[in-house]
Design goal:
Elements lengths: L2 E5 L7 E5 L4 E4 L14 H23 L3 E13 L7 E13 L3 H15 L1 H6 L4 E10 L1
Parallel strand pairs: 5-6
Antiparallel strand pairs: 1-2, 2-3, 4-5
């Protein structure tokens, strides 16, 4: 895996990122840090990637478990250390899984497998942060 990050110029703290798969993402800093708040902060991207990683796992595991899953959202709330390095110290994941006749035990198992075995991002973040999760199932 690879990527390239390029500073977008002397008048701010925006960066263009190109992934190894050819996708472009922009990041920017907070105004108090010289940015102009034009794009997500780099640490927000870390949190976004973690949410995407674990949601991907939950959907794949539910499908392989023959669950009639039709939707999955995960909301993350994180706390960071107050001093540098401002690592994540707590992250709570709340999943809303939509489907027909979903088995709660199977969905909880999918979430646990993601956090304990498959999601590289959350497993890395667990080195500095306390990870917790909750979920709800919506029939639909």
């Amino acid at each position: 895996m690879e990527c390239k990050i390029s500073w977008m110029g002397k008048d701010g703290m925006a960066f263009a990122a190109e992934t190894g798969s050819g996708h472009l993402v922009t990041m920017d800093g907070a105004p108090e840090g010289g940015g102009r708040n034009l794009a997500p902060r780099p640490m927000e991207m870390v949190l976004l990637g973690t949410g995407g990683c674990t949601a991907y796992d939950v959907v794949m595991i539910a499908k392989k478990s023959r669950q009639d899953i039709r939707g999955c959202t995960v909301s993350l709330k994180a706390d960071r250390a107050s001093e540098d390095p401002k690592v994540f110290t707590k992250i709570h994941f709340h999943f809303v899984v939509t489907g027909h006749d979903l088995n709660p035990a199977t969905i909880e198992r999918a979430i646990n497998l993601s956090h304990d075995k498959y999601c590289s991002a959350s497993i890395m973040l667990a080195k500095t942060a306390e990870l917790t999760h909750s979920f709800e199932i919506v029939e639909g």
